[in-house]
Design brief:
This is SPOR domain-containing protein. This protein is of the alpha+beta class. It is 24% helix and 19% strand. The two termini are 33 Å apart.
Amino acid sequence: MANSKYAGIVVDAKTGKTLYASSADAYRYPASLTKIMTLYVVFEELSAGRLTLNSRLKVSKYAAGRPPSKLGLKPGKTIKVKDAILALVTKSANDVATVVAENISGSEKKFAQRMTSTARSLGMKKTTFRNPHGLPNSGQRTTARDMATLGRAIQEHYPQYYGYFKTRSYKYNGRTYGNHNKLLGRVKGVDGIKTGYIRASGFNLVTSVNRNGRQIVAVVMGGRSGASRNAQMTKLISRYLSKASRGKKTVPMIAKRSGAPIFVASALAQPPLPREKPGSTQKPASGAPMVLAFNAAEKPIVAPVPTPSVASVTTASVKTEPVTVPGFGDAVPIPPKIVKQRFDETFAVATALPPIRRESPDLDLTTNSVSKKALLDAARADVTRRTTSQPDSEGRPIPAKTITVETVKIETVPAPEVTASNVKVAAASATALPVVESQSKDDTVTVATSDTPDIEPGWQVQSAASETENQAVALLKKAKARTGAALRGRSPYTEPVEANGQTLYRARFVGFKNKTAARKACSTLKKAKFACFAIYQ
């Protein structure tokens, strides 16, 4: 029987050529492949100097309460950025993903908006993010092709951090977590990058292979099990790696495009200058158009000037003769500031300031904890320092002259948000989201550190709590063997908990559709002499 959830693609990383594709542009749920973009944003923050590998991220009560897979972080505690990266790569920890989102953007929602914006800038036209971890959300979707693009982009843009995806195991607070990507170390040339699973998506995997001068990025989505997904990926690597180029890289680096054209002052061969001398009164705006220069256009673009408001701007005197722009009379061209925030907030852009020094008493500030007023004051102070002229004959500094000019307040119109309510896909459409199928009848027991799927909230059956994870796994196997078909298709799962200063491991079966199904399974376990109870978590 054909698998309706399946999608796959293989791309030659050197030429950009698609070597294989199957439903590559059909919508799919990314599950924990989402965390590749979460890590991409973390790498952005590191490169910009707003974070360091030793920066500490605070854990909120909400983040600590995210469902497994998780590290079990406690509210009020902190985790280093480096540990957060390794936890996302190996354990695929949902609580850590939320910690990252809240510390960078203030909330999961705002972070997801940044993720989606970043996806668009990379050319991922069919990807929308609603959260940073990939837990079930009908509005969070992507395609195999978009995931391949992300897999290539994160290597090209952040090679200094990409090596984290090679991590086979990670130790945190005395526990060792294995990487869910079981192709690492088993398939020659595989150097990352990420697995993912929720029931609606099936088993997903993005893989990068670099062998014998050839490099490919491959994606498999919708596998029926972790084993079958890995087998399909291995098959694709074996069949298509040999078809990849061994020559020099010819495809351009994946460009990170902004959502709107960017003003480049240097693009003006003869930038027009004001006729009035600095310090004189500026003439009121006449309503004439202004000249805009963008890096995407060879010729200036003409746009109308809205009704201006007054603001104070510092300027320096110039000796060059003014240049008249043909057709514009005495109008002074004003370069636009195309930003997502309102125009009056752009003076407080945090990236214009140097990062907080490590010895600063504000060491624990996050990127969202600096107020707009503090940034504005710092920016003004910096401008004053930079524009102060040489001292006069008595040693007193002469401040630069200032004038009052006409400026405009630009209102931005946000793009309409894509939600589950306004996205309707026809049932017969080739790009429709896959219908959620029942669990596979595979009897294989999956242990917690061997590609454990991210468990979505639902009814579960807990049998016991053991002192070691191995004991919990053995108990789950024994219970499944004794109950026959009653637990077929249910996923065994272990979860560490702290009790009276001791770490115990819960032994649970998950994946029950409702309370009745969970209680029925528990009844069967009790008849087989296993203690249990049903719980929703």
